[in-house]
Amino acid sequence: QVQLVESGGGLVQAGGSLRLSCLRSGSIFSPNTMGWYRQAPGKQRELVATITRGGSANYADSVKDRFTISRDNAKNTVYLQMNNLEPEDTAVYYCNADFGPIRGIYWGQGTQVTVSS
Asked: What pLDDT, in 10s, does the model give residues 45-80?
């Protein structure tokens, strides 16, 4: 059973930085794509960033030039470096691993990020 465990969330002032980590276990296969999504209170879950096995990254417009996604395939870990955080970035951040249509998609339990103004 695939497990994703996020860490690194917390409370930070606007303009500050946080680095989220997501450790994957339970599969000998490497996901095609890993990503970070977030969900703010009263809003739908939205894409933040994704990265392919080969390292190609995709970002939501709202976080471009502030967030950087990376993955270490040897450590089964994906990271999200978040700089210049804004109160609008406050949300629960979820890690996602997409193994494709046969092996499926998995989610972590989420980690809270709160940015104070």
From this structure: 999 999 999 999 999 999 999 999 999 988 999 999
In this structure, which long-range contacts are made by residues 81-86, counting pairs with CB atoms below 8 Å and at least 24 apart in sequence? Answer: 81/17, 81/19, 82/17, 82/18, 82/19, 82/20, 82/113, 83/17, 84/15, 84/17, 85/12, 85/14, 85/15, 85/16, 85/17, 85/18, 85/113, 85/115, 86/14, 86/115
The pLDDT value given to residue 29 = 84
5 half-sphere exposure, CB direction, 13 A CA radius = 6
Residues near 53 by beta carbon (within 8 Å), at least 6 away in sequence: 30, 31, 32, 33, 73
How far is residue 5 CA from its own chain's centroid? 11
Looking up tokens 């700089």 gives 83
